[in-house]
């Protein structure tokens, strides 16, 4: 299945009450260029969909702020193998929007492919309530999809699209997935 722009939709899996979203994207850029765009704070903040801060490295940390109301996401970097693998926690502490919190993991794998880079993003251990978009301002499937599209726009020096319009389009499409 593809989205309205022709990009592959992510695959969604449920196991033991938790969801995993897996999305792959090909970028016609060397792996080191993609890695740097993902891990250099100045570059990252120029394309990411929210304010984000990363302390790179195997003992590193990442945090971002997004949504309405504003949510704080934070986590330790659990795997750091430049320029191949970045894995980090994606944690939201209990609050008014997410009373029990949300504690998941994002894994970004980069592989050389046909002169470019294949990026595999796996976001796992998401609750069904969060994955289904039942929480105000929290819907990771369209958000993760948009993050990868904006990375492509940044790498290719293309103009960025309106995030809110795109989010609405993708939310409808993702919520139709089984």
Structure write-up:
- The chain has a single domain, classed as START domain (Alpha-D-Glucose-1,6-Bisphosphate, Chain A, domain 4), CATH 3.30.530.
- Strands 1-2-8-7-6-5-4-3 form an 8-stranded antiparallel sheet.
- The chain starts with 10 loop residues before the first strand and ends with a helix.
- The protein is an alpha+beta fold and 178 residues long.
- The longest helix has 16 residues, at 140-155.
- It has helices at 31-39, 41-47, 128-131, 140-155, 163-174; strands at 11-15, 18-27, 51-55, 61-66, 71-81, 85-92, 102-113, 116-127.
- Helices cover 27% and strands 39% of the residues.
- It is globular, with a radius of gyration of 15 Å.
- A hairpin with a 4-residue loop joins strand 4 (61-66) and strand 5.
- Helix 4 crosses helix 5.
Residue share in helices? 25-40%
Computed Rg = 15 Å
Shape: globular
**Highest-level CATH class:** Alpha Beta
Task: Bin the strand percentage.
Answer: 35-45%
Number of strand elements: 8
**CATH T-level fold name:** Alpha-D-Glucose-1,6-Bisphosphate, Chain A, domain 4
Q: Helix/strand-derived class?
A: alpha+beta
In CATH, the architecture is: 2-Layer Sandwich
Low-confidence stretches: 1-6
Q: How many domains in all?
A: 1
Key terms:
178 residues, alpha+beta, Alpha-D-Glucose-1,6-Bisphosphate, Chain A, domain 4, 8-stranded antiparallel β-sheet, 5 helices, globular, disordered N terminus
């Amino acid at each position: 299945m593809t989205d309205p722009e022709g990009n592959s939709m992510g695959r969604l899996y449920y196991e033991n009450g938790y969801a995993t979203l897996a999305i792959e994207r090909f970028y016609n850029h060397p792996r080191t260029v993609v890695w740097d765009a993902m891990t250099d704070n100045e570059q990252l903040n120029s394309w990411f969909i929210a304010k984000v801060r990363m302390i790179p490295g195997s003992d590193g940390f990442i945090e971002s702020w997004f949504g309405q109301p504003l949510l704080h996401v934070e986590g330790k970097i659990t795997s750091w193998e430049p320029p191949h693998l970045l894995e980090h926690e994606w944690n939201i502490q209990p609050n008014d929007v997410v009373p029990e919190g949300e504690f998941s993991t994002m894994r970004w794998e980069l592989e050389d492919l046909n002169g470019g880079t294949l990026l595999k993003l796996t976001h796992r251990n998401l609750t069904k309530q969060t994955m289904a978009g039942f929480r105000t301002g929290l819907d990771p499937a369209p958000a993760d999809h948009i993050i990868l599209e904006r990375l492509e726009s940044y790498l290719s020096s293309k103009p960025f699209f309106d995030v809110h319009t795109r989010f609405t389009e993708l939310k409808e499409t993702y919520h139709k997935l089984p």
